[in-house]
Amino acid sequence: VIEAAQGAAEGLIFQSTAVSDEFKQQYQEAYGDVPDVIAANAYDAVKLQALAFDECGNDTRCMAEFLRNVRDYEGVSGNLTINEDGSTSKTRIYKQIQNGEFVTLSE
After folding, report:
1. What pLDDT was estimated at residue 48?
2. Tell me, what DSSP letter sits at residue 73?
3. For residues 71 and 84, is the Cβ–Cβ distance under 8 A?
4. Positive or negative, the Cα torsion across 46, 55, 17, 87?
5. Positive or negative, the Cα torsion across 66, 67, 69, 73?
6. pLDDT tens-digit profile of 60-106?
7. Alpha-carbon distance 104 to 107, whole Å?
8. Rounded to 5 degrees, what are φ and ψ at 2?
């Protein structure tokens, strides 16, 4: 965002999710790059799918029910609950672009 906007994003405030320090470190060791929130969200999604598969095998109805009942899952992108409609409630943070850098405003 910062590079693509070429200065036009200065002051922009947006909502994001946290990425755990442990995940950041392990990701950097494995891939040589800093993970973004998309990587953390993807990791949590795959981890939850694997847990559902472990619990339910190939029973897709069981897996769907398992996922609908996720409450207070402590993932690498924060605490996550899956709501009845399939949306998620999770820990959110706010960031602002200041002097060409992402700055966390609140957690």
Report:
1. 97
2. E
3. no
4. positive
5. positive
6. 999 999 999 999 999 999 999 999 898 999 988 899 999 988 898 86
7. 8
8. -65, -45
* CA nearest to 74, candidates 17, 25, 4: 17
Taking each continuous run of H as one helix and of E as one strand, the counts in the chain are 4, 6
Tell me what pLDDT residue 61 has: 96
Residue 6 amino acid letter: Q
Is residue 102 within 8 Å of residue 2, measured between CB atoms?
yes
Environment class of 105 (CB within 10 Å of its CB; exposed 0-12, middle 13-18, buried 19+): exposed
Bridge partners, residue 103, by sequence? 96
**For residues 20 and 96, what is the distance between their CA atoms, to the nearest angstrom?**
19
Q: Could you tell me how many residues make up the chain?
A: 107
Place of tokens 């999604």: 45
3-state secondary structure of 102: strand
